[in-house]
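During the no-cost extension, the postdoctoral fellow (Dr. R.K.) reprocessed legacy sequence entries with the updated structure-token encoder. One reprocessed record is reproduced below for audit purposes.
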Amino acid sequence: FALAGDGCFQEGVSAESATFAAHEKLDNLIVIYDSNEVTLDKMAEYTQSEDIIKRYEAYGWETYEIDGHDLAAVEETIAAAKASNNGKPKFIKANTIIGKGMEETE
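Re-encoded structure tokens follow.
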């Protein structure tokens, strides 16, 4: 497993490693992307506008998109990704709200 956030996918090395993983058919690799739309610089809407699901599908990954706060969906999606032996690495985009549950941040 790997866990990454919005800013991680702005780094060039993420593209290089993603294409390598697909090329080598690393279907036991599962990346969970905590998509809370926040980077170190500012809100992601100001720094990135791509459809990351389409990017990873173009690399040759199997993709999923879920509500990252729905723990049943997280568990079900991880189980499905683990069970899929199709020669593709797995990319799970978990849409979240940073600081969810804290009045000060929501």
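The chain has a mean pLDDT of 90. The two ends are 28 Å apart (CA to CA). The remaining legacy entries will be reprocessed before the final report is submitted.
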